[in-house]
Design brief:
Radius of gyration: 17 Å
Helix content: 25-40%
Shape: elongated
Distance between the termini: 41 Å
Structural class: alpha+beta
Length: about 120
């Protein structure tokens, strides 16, 4: 990010509330911190979505699958902010999101146990 937007004593000048325009993640979009975000190619025109510098940064960073948590670290913003921005891009078809499996079968647990036992 541009150093003009950071004050050593105060921290970031642009607050998370400003970046998300006061919005929080929607209930319909479930983005886990381990969710992998990938830019859709070719990038669709998104006239309804006003792309902020943060939106553009996410689109550029996701040329390969990147986790939501990793994006938050790279962007230097809280996960909640990145969740809102990725939700915007997802709603407009600019990114593809793959979330991890939420159900764990007995077979998977047994494989993990055997793998750990070998260590």
């Amino acid at each position: 990010m541009d150093e003009a937007w950071y004050d050593d004593e105060a921290g970031p000048i642009v607050r998370p509330y400003t970046i998300t325009r006061g919005r929080t993640p929607t209930r319909t979009t479930r983005l886990d911190t381990a969710s992998q975000v990938l830019t859709v190619e070719p990038r669709p025109e998104t006239p309804r979505l006003e792309l902020t510098p943060e939106h553009r940064w996410i689109l550029d960073a996701c040329a390969r699958p990147v986790s939501l948590a990793e994006l938050a670290v790279q962007l230097g913003q809280p996960v909640g902010v990145v969740r809102v921005l990725c939700g915007d891009l997802l709603d407009h078809g600019a990114v593809f999101v793959r979330s991890p499996r939420t159900e764990v079968s007995r077979d998977i647990l047994e494989q993990v146990y055997r793998g750990l036992s070998r260590l």
